[in-house]
Amino acid sequence: MTRQFLAVLVFAFACGIMSPAWADFTGPVIAVVDGDTIDVLVGRRPVRIRLAQIDAPEKRQAFGTSSRQALTTLVFGRSVTATEAGRDRYGRVIGTVYVSGVNANAEMIRLGMAWVYRKYATDRSLYALEDEARTARHGLWADPSPVPPWEFRRR
User: Fold this and answer.
1) d(CA 77, CA 67)
2) Which of 23, 53, 22 is nearest to 36 (CA)?
3) What is the pLDDT at residue 69?
4) Confidence check: pLDDT of 92 > 70
5) Is position 42 within any domain?
6) What is the CATH number of the domain that holds 77?
7) Tens digit of pLDDT for each residue in 15-46?
8) Upper half-sphere CA count for residue 8 (Cβ side, 13 Å)
């Protein structure tokens, strides 16, 4: 590598333009943005995590506030471990979040506070949890015709 390239690389890391892969990391949840996005303090830096494979109602959508509150009850102020599955187009970590050994992503589905994000889901067990929540009319499934967030955003 040339010196100039190394200097640019060091500058990019220092400015936060590039960041190393996080892999698994642990830290306290310092903010719950909505029903599928949290901020975790890693070292001294907040890391925004978009919960993988789920899609929660938007803030302005029916059950948006309830979904955010459910995730807040589950993780806010608690230490979580996140397993990174990549980054989204906004630079957020896409990950699975565990709190006290519980998969928070799956728990949001089980509570009826999020949909399985069909476009990105790879964990087939999430579909069974969604079916159970729908049958029991938990959370958003109490609505006779809930609108998936991806359709709500399209409108």
Assistant:
1) 17
2) 53
3) 98
4) yes
5) yes
6) 2.40.50.90
7) 444 444 546 999 999 999 999 999 999 999 99
8) 5
CB-CB contact of 97 with 80 (8 Å)? yes
Active-site positions read: 50, 58, 92
Range(s) of the domain holding residue 112: 21-154
Q: Does the residue 66 lie in any domain?
A: yes
Assigned domain for 37 exists: yes
Euclidean distance between CA atoms 108 and 130, whole angstroms: 9
Residue with tokens 């990391």: 25
Task: Note whether 63 and 57 are within 8 A (CB).
Answer: yes
- Per the structure, how many domains does the chain have? 1
Per-residue pLDDT of 38-71, as tens digits, reads: 999 999 999 999 999 999 999 999 999 999 999 9
Does a structural domain hold residue 138?
yes
Q: How confident is the model at residue 2 (pLDDT cuts 50, 70, 90)?
A: low
**Residue 3: pLDDT band by 50, 70, 90 thresholds?**
low
In the chain, alpha helices (H): 3-15, 64-75, 104-110, 125-136, 149-154
**Unique residue bearing structure tokens 């903010």:** 31
Alpha helices, H only, 16-123: 64-75, 104-110
Rounded distance between C-alpha atoms, residue 58 and residue 150, angstroms: 9
